[in-house]
Amino acid sequence: MVSIDHFRQGLLKQMDRAAQGGRIDVLINSGELYHLLGGYPGSTHGMSSCCDAMQAEMKIGDTIIRDRTSGAGMTVRYLLPRAH
After folding, report:
1. Distances in Å between the alpha carbon of 10 and those of 2, 4, 19, 69, 78?
2. Looking at the domain assignment, is residue 26 inside a domain?
3. What is the DSSP letter of 23?
4. Structural domain count, the chain
5. Which residues share a beta bridge with 26?
6. Which of 29, 38, 70, 78 is 20 to 30 A from 8 via CA?
7. Percent helix, strand and coil across the chain, each rounded to 5?
């Protein structure tokens, strides 16, 4: 199983790329992040770790668009730039 830290690093890279592109926010979906970082279609065995990483990176002002209990994955709007 892929670690939470693996998903965290991928999440931070996506946020950094968006911020470098001048974006003020970025929508990240757990399913897309999971597949981008090595999860395969139809597999959800690491999805919990992916959602845990996304939730742990939330800061004041970030918004959950789709809750992880929806069964369709989690989507979060993260404000940019991020303070590391």
Report:
1. 12, 10, 14, 22, 14
2. yes
3. -
4. 1
5. 78
6. 70
7. 45, 15, 40
pLDDT (tens place) for every residue of the chain, 84 residues total: 578 999 999 999 999 999 999 999 999 999 899 988 887 666 667 888 899 999 999 999 999 999 988 776 899 999 999 876
Residue 21 lies in a domain: yes
Model pTM?
0.88
Could you give the CA distance from residue 71 to residue 67 in angstroms, rounded to a whole number?
A: 8
Cβ contact 49:12 at 8 Å: no
Per the listing, tokens 């996304």 go with: 54
Helix 4-20 and helix 47-56, axial crossing angle in degrees, nearest 10: 50
What sign has the CA pseudo-torsion 20, 67, 54, 37?
A: negative
CB-based burial, 19-38: b 16+ in 10 Å, e otherwise:
beeeeeebebbbbebbeebe
**71 residue type, one letter:** G
Instruction: Examine residue 84 and state whether it is found in any structural domain, yes or no.
Output: no
